[in-house]
């Protein structure tokens, strides 16, 4: 039996950080052998906020590709591809947009949060509509599972609605994907989400000393000023990171923090060391790809061809279902 398919991915607006790792990257690495895994580098979605600086995309697309490979994605098993180079995603976006009410998009909580963060008032058409395009990202290859952080849940709900509506309007050709809810990592500043734009992130490619420096700046329990002040781990960013990355130490750390038996400085050093143990092999693999940019481009090229091939098959069925398959052209035959 054919493996079920995963589709997930990221906007290339810079390098990937530990928030991406916890929310999605570690899961795609763990599942890549059990699922046929498609990883989208969503450059069109990046343009919804960065349309004024498209010249950064050639670099950022490759940074995100390298972050995935460095994190352990095996290019012989998984498919990494570039969104803008798969025209079927754009076509599907247009078809879906015919039956998605604008008010549904306006009320999407993730759109609202992002618009507020960016200070957008009069929303751009592409920004407001990117959840529709994300539905196309997921469905063009008939993905079954989408491992993403909680903030993406509204987009996945919309995708499921679009699939159901399409299948009922035309013919049951699309696959309704399941979500796989994963964790969201708070930022170093204690802000709800680690993010590049909030400048509270540790990058997968940060050197070891940079990780130590950033962990030292992390916000801790404000009630702890001296080493033996009693701690409240439930409000401490560093404690939440230990829970995420250093589970084995938590049973010892929690009572020690509460009783003021471990200082924040030592607690942070233990975290930085543990993060560096996680990141060392990732940095090593990245060094190889940094030295071999042609290998990265070849992986993206092969992945994008495979994605186009899947998209071509799906679009043929979609157009047939919609009765807009007027005549065939010799130039667009799936392999
Ligand atoms: N919106 C996602 C993010 O900001 C990126 C993304 C684009 C995505 N297309 C996707 C995630 C499809 C999962 C599936 O991180």
The radius of gyration over CA amounts to 22 Å
| Number of contiguous helices | 14
Bound ions, cofactors and other small molecules, one mention each: tryptophan
User: Could you give a short account of the major beta sheet?
Assistant: 3 strands, parallel
What does this structure look like?
This protein is mainly alpha-helical. The longest helix is centred in the last third of the chain and has 29 residues. The structure holds tryptophan. Tryptophan binds next to strand 1, helix 8 and strand 4.
Give the helices and strands, then pairings.
Blueprint: E1 5-10, H1 18-31, E2 36-41, H2 43-50, H3 57-71, E3 79-82, H4 87-97, H5 102-106, H6 109-118, H7 125-128, H8 130-139, E4 145-149, H9 153-169, E5 178-182, H10 208-217, H11 237-245, H12 247-258, H13 264-291, H14 293-321
Parallel strand pairs: 1-2, 2-3, 4-5
The chain binds tryptophan (TRP).
Key attributes of the depicted protein:
14 helices, 335 residues, three-stranded parallel beta sheet, two-stranded parallel sheet, binds tryptophan, globular, mainly alpha, single chain
Short synopsis of the structure:
The chain is mainly alpha-helical. About 55% of the residues lie in helices and about 10% in strands. Helix 1 links the parallel strand 1 and strand 2.
């Amino acid at each position: 039996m054919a493996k079920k398919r995963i589709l997930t991915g990221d906007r290339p607006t810079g390098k990937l950080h530990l928030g991406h790792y916890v929310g999605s990257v570690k899961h795609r690495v763990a599942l890549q052998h059990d699922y046929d895994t498609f990883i989208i580098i969503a450059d069109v979605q990046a343009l919804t906020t960065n349309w004024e600086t498209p010249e950064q995309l050639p670099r950022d697309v490759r940074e995100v590709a390298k972050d995935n490979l460095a994190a352990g994605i095996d290019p012989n098993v998984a498919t990494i591809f570039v969104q803008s180079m798969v025209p079927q995603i754009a076509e599907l976006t247009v078809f879906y947009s015919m039956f998605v009410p604008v008010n549904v998009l306006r009320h999407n909580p993730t759109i609202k949060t992002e618009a507020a963060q960016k200070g957008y008032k009069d929303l751009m058409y592409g920004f407001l509509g990117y959840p529709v395009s994300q539905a196309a990202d997921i469905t063009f290859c008939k993905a079954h599972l989408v491992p993403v952080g909680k903030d993406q849940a509204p987009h996945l709900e919309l995708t499921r609605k679009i699939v159901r509506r399409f299948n009922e309007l035309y013919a049951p050709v699309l696959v309704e994907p399941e979500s796989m809810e994963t964790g969201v990592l708070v930022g170093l500043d204690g802000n709800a989400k680690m993010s590049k734009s909030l400048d509270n992130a540790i990058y997968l490619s940060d050197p070891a000393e940079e990780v130590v420096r950033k962990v030292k700046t992390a916000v801790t329990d404000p009630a702890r000023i001296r080493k033996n002040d009693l701690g409240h781990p439930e409000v401490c960013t560093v404690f939440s990171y230990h829970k995420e990355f250093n589970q084995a130490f938590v049973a010892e750390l929690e009572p020690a923090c509460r009783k003021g038996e471990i200082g924040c400085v030592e607690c942070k050093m233990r975290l930085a060391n543990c993060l560096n143990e996680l990141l060392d092999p990732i940095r090593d693999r990245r060094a190889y790809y940094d030295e071999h940019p042609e290998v990265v481009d070849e992986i993206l090229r092969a992945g994008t061809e495979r994605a186009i091939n899947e998209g071509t098959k799906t679009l043929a069925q979609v157009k047939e279902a919609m009765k807009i398959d007027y005549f065939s052209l010799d130039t667009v035959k799936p392999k």
